[in-house]
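Hey, sorry to bother you again with one of my protein questions. A protein chain has come my way and I'm curious about its shape. It would help a lot if you went through both lines with me. I owe you a coffee for this, so here goes:
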Amino acid sequence: MAGEPRPISGEARRALEQELADLRAERATVAATLGGTDSPGDAADQADELQRANQLERLDDRITQITDRLHESASAGLPSTDAVGVGSTVTVRFADGTVETVQISEMAEERAHTLVTADSPLGRALLGHRAGDTVGYDAPDGPSTVTVLSLGEPSEDT
């Protein structure tokens, strides 16, 4: 299962696409500052050139990672509505009775308050569970439980 393509949420896809656009713009700016002179310059100029070349390499590596992840998710199709996985939209009822719809994501996003990362305590606990399951997890305030109400669009019980 580790080698299978993994879907991502729409929100995570948009965040990756925005990061990719930002990285490509930054790469173009850095690349424009490289080379262009035949004179070797002093040691400070050479060090600066090396630093920009290293930055360009890091940008290229991240661009490749994001591009590969976007291609992988495209071939994975939509997130499952049978069991919770990365990319799933899940409506849950917490132990205190509050109901919330969250998306399971592989990365945290500053602007998305309803995302739960797959490696967070709640995210790890939800993975693989189905509607109707009650799941225990370690919350910041101590052990807690959550009940999976539905997968997919928000539950009518909210």
Remarks:
- The radius of gyration is 21 Å.
- The domain at 89-151 is CATH 3.10.50.30 (Chitinase A; domain 3).
